[in-house]
Amino acid sequence: MTDSVYTKYAIANVFKEIMTKKSFEKITISDITTACGLNRQTFYYHFRDKYELLNWIFYNDAILPFVENLGFDNWSEKLCNMLNMIYTNSRFYSNALKISYGQEFKSYMHKANTNVFLSVIEEVSGNYVMADDDKVFIAEFFSYGMTGTIVSWVQRGMKESPETVTSHIVNLVNDCQRLAVKRYMMPKK
Question: Rounded to whole angstroms, how far apart are CA atoms 10 and 2?
Fold first, then answer.
């Protein structure tokens, strides 16, 4: 890891810690740099503002580990890992999703989930063909459902375990994929 990336992670970790005690709106760059033992210029060298920092955390903590080497055979495990990471950092993610900028998390999550479901559709299609518009519609439909479920779980205080939420999502996807194959896919000619 380069010094620059190491510094970004150090800033991010301090920011996450501060955000468990203080609302996002009340956190200043001075709070972050003082807690890190860095000067303001170092912060601004790495991040434009606290919004960019929050966006960087969403992407690097939750989204990147989820989408890296993602496939049909490992998506449920990766989903559970992501939910466990969010659960471990529950106070941070609860506070982060309360602000309007939490939309960035939802947007990242929706895009990642849409790609997951497009991959799932490709994997299950086998000897069948589906119109591209139908693939995108189905992938986005499930993506909104999965993203909404995750955000709702966080906003309700993560009362269910990450494993329980994963199990519910996986069961629904597996049951619905059979219906989608019957309804939207035509045998290859």
Answer: 12
Side-chain-facing half-sphere of 32: CA atoms under 13 Å: 29
The answer, as to whether pTM is greater than 0.90, is: no
What is the distance of C-alpha 134 from the center of its chain?
24
Q: What are the phi and psi torsion angles at 57 (to 5°)?
A: -65, -50
Angle at 12 between CA 6 and CA 18, to 5 degrees: 140
Name the pLDDT band for 10 (thresholds 50, 70, 90).
Answer: very high
The structural domains of the chain, ordered by start, are 1-47 (1.10.10.60), 54-187 (1.10.357.10)
β-strand partners of 128: 187
For residue range 116-175, list pLDDT tens digits in order: 888 878 777 777 788 889 889 988 998 999 999 999 999 999 999 999 999 999 998 888
